[in-house]
Amino acid sequence: MLLSIRHFNKQLADEVEHQQLLVTFKREKKVALDMLIVSVALFACLGPMLVIKLVLQSSFPKLYDLLYPWAFTMTYLNSSINPVLYVTRNKELRSAIKAVIPFCF
After folding, report:
1. What's residue 24's pLDDT?
2. Which of 76, 78, 92, 102 is deepest in the core (most CB within 10 A)?
3. Domain-by-domain residue ranges, the chain?
4. With 0-12 CB in 10 A as exposed, 13-18 as middle and 19+ as buried, what is 45?
5. How far is residue 99's CA from residue 87's CA, in Å, rounded to a whole number?
6. What percent of the chain is modeled with pLDDT above 90?
7. What is the reported pTM?
């Protein structure tokens, strides 16, 4: 009987570890996806400035002068996009913001 109980406890411990691994894997997968989204947003906002600086600045100065303000704005727009991304992707952050600013929601 002691061996049966020991065997059952081992199976139970293995199942608990498996459940914890699944929860951890799910969390890490979400974090990886969030980082991918933030990285894509960063490159989308910095890309125009890089292209304009590297390609157009020396070759096409008039086009560079025309597009530079737009690219500069896109670079700073990334700072405004990041908080929106984090709030939309993180339920706990939304709840915390609602708790701090209850009259806005």
Report:
1. 75
2. 78
3. 2-100
4. buried
5. 14
6. 31
7. 0.69
- With a CB cutoff of 8 Å and minimum separation 6, the contacts of 15 are none
- The C-alpha atoms of residue 88 and residue 41 are separated, in whole angstroms, by 14
Question: Phi/psi zone of residue 30: left (φ > 0), alpha (ψ -120 to 50 degrees), beta?
Answer: alpha
Token pair for 97: 């913001």
- The structure tokens 């400035």 sit at 49
Asked if residues 38 and 85 have their Cβ atoms less than 8 Å apart, the reply is yes
CA 51, chain centre distance (Å): 24
Torsion angle of the four alpha carbons 87, 92, 97, 102, in this order, in degrees rounded to the nearest 10: 130
Q: Is 70 helix (H, G, I), strand (E, B) or coil?
A: helix
Query: To which residue do tokens 């049966």 refer?
Result: 4
Helices (H), 1-105: 2-51, 57-59, 61-89, 91-100
